[in-house]
Design a protein that fits this description.
Layout: E1 4-5, H1 13-23, H2 32-45, E2 49-53, H3 56-66, E3 74-78, H4 84-91, E4 95-99, H5 110-116, E5 121-124, H6 140-144, E6 148-152, E7 160-161, E8 164-165, E9 174-178, E10 191-195, H7 198-208, E11 212-213, E12 229-230, H8 241-251, H9 254-273, E13 294-297, H10 304-313, E14 316-317, H11 329-333, H12 342-348, E15 351-354, H13 362-382
Helix pairs in contact: 1-8, 2-8, 3-4, 3-7, 9-13, 10-13
């Protein structure tokens, strides 16, 4: 493609066929394809249970609800993430605390959460930013005192960390995924939560479907199979059979997609290493990065907007991930001020996400890298 977005779905003939078959089946909303997708996802991640939702944001909301968070509780989120990582607490009435990142990895490491946790902290949301695995070992002490660990793995399907595939919940209570089209695999729009806790899995399923529990009433023996009860307030967060047909087909390609993303990232690094331009990229993890994003930090003092605008004009859909969450007006109204997380703010001013998706050719990678180097050099001269 001549225009290169920062991310793009890869839909192949077998994906299309899977969706056609679902459309011709008896089920369009929740049917057997949802079960198949959940089983395949749980097996891929090495978790006991997977519960699919209609978005990654819904998955995070459901995880907070399943954990029992509410008013008076605090959830800790990285400041350097998409707002859903923090918004999920507000949906259930809990407060949010923000934690700064390690500038070498662009992630909020487990030790930072452990240090920031206070007496009201009931949950933490470590984010596997860009698909880089975060070692959650140091959160064991928080879990031991009842703090729920909810991994935000919206970027990290296919990531392998020190305890195995992200999503196996070896060091967490729940892991939340997103399957938006820019992610490594897609269901069109969708999300999921994995867990090894049967009670949490049940709560997630109930929350997904209005809080409905199908059981006979104790006080009405005349009630038939139509009867159900709203046990708790839930949402309509159901994903469809059509979406899950696509998701199951895509999941079978996960290894290929992640491998290609790693090839693209390696090539970017090679191309940048052979120049005098002072571009920084995060330290490589010891295990497998999923490279949902490939993020470069521009040299200090460079006019990023000039670089961004020039690249967009040349057909490169670069992006910035992310604006510090507490800078948004909603959080400013809650009393958060700029300067709260200095490393997050320094990285925000320099970061730029480059195109990375399996459909890119080697030539695409080379022209993307060349365009970035050219525009950074121009901006440097213009200073």
């Amino acid at each position: 493609m001549s225009y290169l977005p920062y991310g793009h779905q890869t839909i192949e003939d077998d994906d299309v066929q899977a969706v056609i078959e679902a459309l011709r089946s008896d089920w369009l909303t929740q049917g057997p394809n949802v079960d198949h997708f959940e089983e395949a996802l749980a097996a891929t991640c090495g978790a006991r249970y997977a519960v699919a939702f209609n978005s990654g944001t819904a998955a995070l909301h459901a995880a907070c609800a399943a954990a029992g968070l509410g008013p008076g509780d605090e959830l800790l989120s990285p400041a350097f993430s998409f707002a859903a990582s923090a918004n999920c607490a507000r949906y259930v009435g809990a407060d949010v605390g923000f934690v700064d990142i390690d500038a070498s990895t662009l992630a909020c490491e487990a030790a930072a959460f452990a240090e920031a946790a206070g007496g009201r902290t009931r949950a933490v949301v470590p984010v596997h930013y860009a698909g880089r695995p975060v070692d959650l070992s140091e959160l064991a002490s928080l879990r031991a005192r009842g703090v729920t660990v909810i991994e935000d793995a919206a970027h990290a399907i296919g990531t392998i960390g020190p305890h195995g595939p992200v999503g196996n919940c070896a060091t967490s209570d729940m892991t939340c995924f997103s399957f938006h089209p820019v992610k490594t695999i897609t269901t069109g729009e969708g999300g999921a939560v994995t867990t090894n806790d049967a009670d949490l899995a049940d709560r997630l399923r109930v929350f997904r479907t209005h809080g409905i529990v199908r059981r006979p009433p104790d006080d009405d023996p005349s009630a038939g199979d139509w009867y159900y009860e709203i046990s708790d307030l839930g949402m309509n967060y159901r994903i469809t059979d059509v979406q899950c047909a696509l998701g199951t087909s895509q999941l079978a390609k996960l290894e290929r997609f992640v491998s290609r993303r790693n090839e693209i990232a390696a090539r970017y690094r090679e191309l940048f290493a052979g120049t005098d331009v002072d571009l920084q990229t995060p330290v490589e993890p010891p295990l497998r990065h999923a490279y949902h994003l490939f993020v470069a930090l521009l040299p200090e003092g460079i006019d990023r907007k000039a670089v961004f605008d020039a690249l967009r004009a040349d057909g490169f859909g670069v992006q910035v991930h992310f604006i510090p969450i507490y800078w948004h007006p909603y959080y400013r109204r809650l009393g958060f001020e700029r300067g709260l997380c200095p490393e997050t703010e320094r990285v925000y001013h320099r970061c730029l996400s480059l195109p990375v998706f399996p459909g890119m050719s080697d030539a695409d990678v080379e022209r993307s890298a060349a365009a970035l180097l050219r525009e950074v050099e121009r901006a440097h001269v213009a200073r």
